Amino acid sequence: MAEERIQSIGLHNELQRSYLEYAMSVIVGRALPDVRDGLKPVQRRILYAMHELGLTPRYSYRKSARIVGDVLGKYHPHGDQAVYDALVRLAQDFTSRYPLLDGHGNFGSVDDDPPAAMRYTEIRLALIASDGLLDEINQNTVDLIPNFDGSQEEPIVLPAQLPFLLLNGCSGIAVGMTTSIPPHNLGEVVDALIAMIRKPKLSDEVLLDFIPGPDFPTGGEIFIGKGVKDTYLHGRGIIKMGGVAHIEELQSTKYRNRRCAVVITELPYQLSKASWIEKLADQINDDKITGITDIRDESDRDGMRLVIELGRSIEPKEILNILQRRTSLQTNFSAIILALVNGQPVQLSLRKLLEHFLSYREVTVIRRTQNTLDHVDKRLEVVEGLIKALCDLPRVIRIIQSLKNIDNTKLNLQAHLNLTSIQADAILNMPLRRLTNFEKNTLLQESTLLRQERRDLYLLLKEREALLKSITNELKSLKKRFATPRRTVLRDENIYPNNYLTTKVEQQQVVEGPLLNSQLLISQDGQVRISSIQSIKKLRLEDSVEIGHHPSPLQLLLTINSCPNVLAFSSTGCVGLLRWEMVREQPRSIANFLPHSLREGQVIQIVPLPSYTKPNLSLGLLSSDGHFKRLPLEVFRDLPGQATTIFKLKQGVNLLRVIACLENQELILGSSMGRLLRFKLQKGILPIVKRTAKGTLLLKLLPGESMAGATCIEDQSGLILATAKGQIKRLSCSSLKVTERGHLGQIGLPFRKKGDTLVDLQSTSSEIVSGQLSSGRSFRLRISDYDIESTLGFGQQMQLARGERIKRLIPLIRNSNSK
């Protein structure tokens, strides 16, 4: 029997060594994400296993239990429930800003409802994971290592094309450290990456303009201040966030008088709705919060809606402030940007995180380019060999016929035609049907393309500037495909310390501050900014501008010291208030200042609501199928915080135009065929109706015809008409007959070119009208430069580029103080 060897060691040394090994195992192998792809090991293994199974978005779902089994058996020998929990989180759209998995079944809810068991749910890769994380996995972009038992290989990291650590965020608790990274908006992150590529020494202030704050999947609001700045500059900070609420006046019933309610449409990130309601009810029962008579959860598939009904004599704003102070309606997000860098946990600033990603992306693109170049070289070698054979085909046939041994034939081909071994094999394997002149021409064309591709690939490997340009173009393409409007609204911490509800008083405080006498600018491409009067004068908005690549035309210019209410209308028939109080000099997308529920449709028009009341002033709404209705201004004066449906539309029908109307004005409608109809805005013909009214059919469209637009005119004003192929005409409205509903109208613009269509019409009450072309170019014309014509006139022809079309005309709306 062998002699036993027992070695005495210090207990504290062994504990220190063992605990350190355990801690590093948890840090590196379980709890912390990698800065390069933003994934923890279990998440990476789930995605890779699904990729190996071919579960792309183009194929059907597969049972979650099958995925969990593959991950456990091949890559991750831990508990099955831990793997399933990680899989579920990757599929939850209320946890991840851009879910990496597409789930089918019950994957839980914001009410903390548990997901169904793995044997019931089904899953596959989401498109952003398939194309943004795993698309380059087979192009030698990352290293592979053996799995836990050496039977398989798995990637060390995935070849991410986007910084998913920022996009989806991450949370994890390791030994002695934790990470808590909030999710962000893809469009803003890509813009920041492109700016850093173009200018690596970009200042922190400019970088924070590109990424002003997190963008949570559940919406809500965050307060921009010291917490956000500390998070981005130092990697750790406290971000104040909260839900979205507004006050509604409930309709009275037979048994209940008219009263108010606080309606909550969005809760802070990671806050359970059911838990919040339960805790609020406990405080009401304990008399810690009084004045609330009822709590109803009216949430449905269209979104969250918690109605907190108040007593008759209760001030709703006071209750709202109490809810913010005493419940989690206002809470904090403790952000810690901690991730693995070269296998070591490092606390990162926003700049460092983006720099690490860009460095990694540069390496993966170089490896991908080298891999593609190797394949191109191999294919080019084969193609050139086949071309040599086809150019001397009789000789090749004689050599093959004269020898009986394949090996000798191959050697003879190499010797006589100066071929490589690979080329000789390709010739011997070539079928007889390819021995044609057509095949020879095809190979010559392929050779030319391969040589050009090889030159382009060499350029990427040789010149870093070309490589960075390629990365920039790829980022732009991904942004175009996957970017979505911001869901979380940004608020100024100094202006909104305790109250989420924007009122006229708070707007007045904003206006009386640094924005006094500033101008609110909204351009056609949806960018919003604040500018000084001096900057506006430099734009020379009264001058006509020829067609060219100019900045996007302005559609709204307002002096904001009058605290205007600005309405945004979507193509789905909804309206919401534009929250312009947070707009600053740096241009931002208009989606950041709109109610979350309004972002589902395209914003088709921005309308400032007059602060004064004209008699019989209304807003007219025109749908794409020719229906029209007039609504009183009172409908729009007290809109709630969320979007409101003001025109119920049939499927496939969109809201086309919103028009300010005065009694006794005239309404002009136009169709794509050039038909124009003129109506009197009188109560008996086009009356003002309620919000729930369906609207009146004014123009019955013919087959192949569509609505071009509509406008209201005064007695002496005219129209400016534009066609897709560049025909511009100024029309006298006196040449149009006043019609009634159901009339076919009359042709107001005979087309010069075959296949042309009317695309827009505007009133000549505005001296300057801009236009937008399909190519992205624009122009600005002065209406007085065009002669007034009758319905028989052809107007003037603009010189457009080949294939270019006019999309629409854009009148500049401005108040009297903006001139």
Topology:
Elements: H1 11-31, H2 41-52, E1 62-63, H3 64-74, H4 80-91, E2 101-104, E3 122-125, H5 127-132, E4 144-146, E5 153-155, H6 164-167, E6 170-173, E7 178-181, H7 186-198, H8 204-210, E8 221-224, H9 226-234, E9 236-242, E10 244-250, E11 259-266, H10 273-285, E12 292-297, E13 306-310, H11 316-326, E14 330-336, E15 338-341, E16 344-347, H12 350-391, H13 393-402, H14 406-417, H15 421-428, H16 437-462, H17 464-482, E17 489-492, H18 504-511, E18 519-523, E19 527-531, H19 533-538, E20 545-548, E21 554-559, E22 565-570, E23 574-577, E24 588-589, E25 603-609, E26 618-623, E27 627-632, H20 634-637, E28 644-645, E29 655-661, E30 666-671, E31 675-680, E32 696-697, E33 707-713, E34 719-723, E35 727-731, E36 746-747, E37 758-763, E38 768-773, E39 778-782, E40 788-789, E41 796-797, E42 806-811, E43 813-814
Parallel strand pairs: 8-17, 21-43, 35-40
Antiparallel strand pairs: 1-3, 2-3, 4-5, 6-7, 8-9, 9-14, 10-11, 11-13, 12-13, 15-16, 18-19, 18-21, 19-24, 20-39, 22-23, 22-25, 23-28, 26-27, 26-29, 27-32, 30-31, 30-33, 31-36, 34-35, 34-37, 35-41, 38-39, 38-42
Helix pairs in contact: 2-3, 3-4, 7-17, 12-15, 12-16, 13-14, 14-15, 16-17
Q: Tags for this entry?
A:
Topoisomerase II, domain 5, Neuraminidase, Gyrase A, domain 2, 20 helices, five-stranded mixed sheet, alpha+beta, Type_II_DNA_Topoisomerases, GyrA/parC_rep, 819 residues, DNA binding
